Each structure stands twice: as C-alpha cells, then as structure tokens.
Amino acid sequence: MNRYFNPWLGVVFGFTGTMASKASGDNRELVNEQAIANMYAAMRSEMNQLYSKITELEMEVSEHSLVIGAIQPLDPSRRCYRMVGGVLVERTIKEVLPAVQRNKAGLEEVIARLNEALEKKKNEIAEFELKHKIKIRRADTEAKEDSNLKEGSAQGVLVGPASE
C-alpha cells in the first residue's frame, strides 16, 4: 500500500493498487491520489461551511429570543422600531412581536435542515474515508496527551503551614 500525506489537511492517505495500476506508472497514481485528496478537502470544506452557517443562524435565533424576551412584557400599543431591509420602520409591539416570532421559527427550521445536511455530509465523508482508506493524523493532539501524562505524574499538592 502506498501512502500520501497532505500537509494542509494533516491527513495520511493509504492507497492500494486498485486506485491506479502499477503498469501505468507512479505519475498517474500520484494524480489519482491528489484528485482524491482534493475531493476529500472539498468535502471537509463543505462540512466546515455548514458548521459555520449553523453557528451564524443559531446566533441570530438567540438575538431573536432576546428581542422577544425584552418586548413581550411591554404594552402591545407601545411604539417600537424595527430594521427592515436596512430601513428603520416605526411599528407597535403588537405588530412586531408576531413577525419576530415567525422569523425565529423560520430560522429554527433552516437550522434543522442544515443539521440534517451536516449529518449526511459527515456520513458521506466517513464512507469516503473507508472507501479510500484515509486516516487522519493528529500529531499535535498526541504530543499534547504525552506531555499531559508526564505533567500529571509530576503534579503534587502544596500545603502551607497550619494557621491557628
């Protein structure tokens, strides 16, 4: 089995001879390995984009919750201002509150759909890793674990003089 390390991803790719025939030469095999590495990087990038979009929308939902919590106990006839398409519009709380609640519900639906897409993408990546025998190398975390073990064995408790 041949191995190919992609330093940008920190990933080791293990390939069998089925990816490219030995008769075609190492050059074609390297191209196929690089194509697989590029596909893997694109899949991981899509997954990271889904994560960031979900996080962004969750922040908006929390902002909507704060607004709802702030204006709900107030008098429904009280004036408030709402930003619509970059324009500040004067409305009453009884007009704004249902709209903010609908927006929050819509955002929550979008987040649910994005979470489903994220799970599909994770499964797709896992299948791709199995199919192409991709293993993720995490040298940084292994080094940290080793240093933590050494530190843990040397740690102690300092006890000061007893005060009376």
Protein described:
With 164 residues, the protein is α+β, with helices and mostly antiparallel strands. It is 62% helix and 15% strand. The protein contains 3 helices and 5 strands. The strands form 2 sheets. It has a 3-stranded antiparallel beta sheet with strand order 1-2-5. A two-stranded antiparallel sheet has the order 3-4. It is elongated, with a radius of gyration of 27 Å. About 5% of the residues have low confidence.
The overall strand count is 5
> Using only CA atoms, what is the Rg?
27 Å
Order of strands, widest sheet: 1-2-5
Q: Estimate the global geometry from the Cα principal axes.
A: elongated
Taking the sheet with the most strands, its summary is: 3 strands, antiparallel
Q: What is the percentage of strand-forming residues?
A: 15-25%
Note the run of SSEs as H and E.
EEHEEHEH
Structural class: alpha+beta
Helix percentage range: 55-70%
Question: How many angstroms does the end-to-end distance come to?
Answer: 71 Å
Average residue pLDDT? 80
User: Helical stretch count?
Assistant: 3
Regions with pLDDT < 50 over 5+ consecutive residues? 15-23
